[in-house]
Amino acid sequence: MRLDGFGILVQDMPRMIRFYRDVLGFEIKEAEDATNVYLVKDGTLFLLYGRKDFEKLTNRRYDYVKGLNGHYEIALYVDTFEEVDAAFHQAVENGAAPVLPPELEPWGQRTCYIADPEGNLIEIGSWNKPYAEKDR
Q1: How far are the Cα atoms of 16, 17, 44, 48 from residue 33, in angstroms, in the given order?
Q2: Are 32 and 40 a contacting pair, CB within 8 Å?
Q3: Would you give the distance in Å from CA 1 to the centre of its chain?
Q4: What number of helices (H) and strands (E) belong to the chain?
Q5: What are phi and psi of 43, to 5 degrees?
Q6: Hey, how many other C-beta atoms are within 10 angstroms of the C-beta on 29?
Q7: 3-state percent helix, strand, coil for the chain, nearest multiple of 5
Q8: Each residue's pLDDT expressed in tens, for the chain with a length of 136 residues
């Protein structure tokens, strides 16, 4: 099997579309009133599914956490430590909820956390080297 995408079940589709498009720069082709939305960021597919539509599709009800949740994180990478700080401050200024301000971790990565409007965690981090070299 191959990983094809990552889906997020959302309550307020227009708000989440605007956040991922306008605050984090994801490419989104659908309108704000769509029930399923494909997002692309650097070649990675993310999907936003309306909760009620997904429940109808699967004929099940689900429980959803309100506020900040720790079920998963989306990790975004920038090439330099300075870009971590700039991305954090820009995201917060544009509506992201601050969770952890930028800090240098003991393992050498500079990282920070924000949350989207529905409380999903997003990490912005860097090893202070270009993406192509980060795992070397």
Answers
A1: 11, 10, 23, 12
A2: no
A3: 24
A4: 3, 8
A5: 85, 0
A6: 9
A7: 25, 35, 40
A8: 888 889 999 999 999 999 999 999 999 877 777 788 998 888 889 999 999 999 999 999 999 988 999 889 999 999 999 999 999 999 999 999 999 999 999 999 999 999 999 999 999 999 999 998 988 8
Helices (H), ranges, 60-99: 81-93
What is the 8-class DSSP label of residue 96? Answer: P
Amino acid letter, residue 49: Y
Rounded CA separation 84/65 (Å): 28
User: Which secondary-structure segment (H or E) carries 123?
Assistant: strand 121-126
CATH superfamily of 6-58: 2,3-Dihydroxybiphenyl 1,2-Dioxygenase, domain 1 (3.10.180.10)
* Domain 73-133: CATH architecture, name and number where available: Roll (3.10)
pTM: 0.91
